[in-house]
Automatic annotation (TrEMBL):
Keywords: Signal
Gene3D superfamilies, per the entry: Bordetella uptake gene, domain 1, Periplasmic binding protein-like II
Recorded superkingdom: Bacteria
Pfam families: TctC
Taxonomy of the source species: Bacteria, Pseudomonadati, Pseudomonadota, Alphaproteobacteria, Acetobacterales
Keyword Ribosomal protein included in the entry's annotation: no
Signal sequence interval, chain numbering: 1-23
SUPFAM superfamilies linked to this entry: Periplasmic binding protein-like II
Species of the source: Teichococcus wenyumeiae
Recorded family membership: Belongs to the UPF0065 (bug) family.
UniProt protein name: Tripartite tricarboxylate transporter substrate binding protein
Amino acid sequence: MAPAVVRVAAALLGAVIVSPAWAEGWPAGQPITMVLPSGPGGSSDPLARLLAEEMGKRLNQSIVVVNRPGAGGNVGMAQAARAKPDGYTVVLSWTGPLATNLALYRDVGWNPSRDLVPVGMVGCTPNVLAVSPTFPASSLPGFLDYARAHSGAVSYGTTGVGSSWHIAGEMLNQKADGALVHIPYPTPGGPMADLAGGRLQAIFPVIPMTVPHVRASTLKVLVVFSERRSAVLPEVPTTAEAGYPGLVSETCFALLAPTGIPAEVIARLNGTLNDVLAAPATRERVSDMGLTIQTGAPDRVTAFLATEVPRQASIVHASGARAD
């Protein structure tokens, strides 16, 4: 493991500071801020608002979701990193800001090795390969054969350089011998519309964005970039089933807090998060979003990043992508 990755993992595991016993509840009059490093209406927005609502009920404390988009999530992450470690700020982040951006940007605006500590994992949702209903291929091998036979004529749209859509597309482009053409967009609506209009041949959205379009028959999904089938798209094969084991691209969510937060607060937040995700009603709603729930102690986030940071770096470097 690279030294920088070791530092990131070690910091996220060991930076919680023990302090005098935390009171039974947060002092009244000040809500907890849950920073979300993306804009309103994105695929992460419903998840953040669900967690804020359910955790707030259990903590008897108001939790307010604050959207802070910009620079692929770096703006929101930097704001959370600069917040006081008093238990009143958490950040719901995901693979992009936590791992991909570290290879994509020269300066992410916060220090991954010292600024934030994990509260707990939330869950993961895979990317998919989606094409228009009239696309001539109906399987991953068929798509790759078509792309190679029409090199340079098959374009795929993404939500920007370094996005999970782009990472999945670059992984598949390596299997297509570089035949695919990347077209970045500023928002998800652009590639969705252009796929429907025939101006794109493929997109690689995460499942929450995909399901409504599948139900409306405006696109077809050829494969899920995961080791297991999705509960909401059970008829769609995985990349391994399609003959490409190891071709995995997932967006995983985790809750974090500023370094220096009392250990008792981390423990209470972690326990509350796990209780929320264990509740049947919450599990059903999260599953309907296309996420597979992952719970556990804070060090599960550390273990995830210890493998995901170098994996994302390898993909980004192979693609030659830079965001600054």
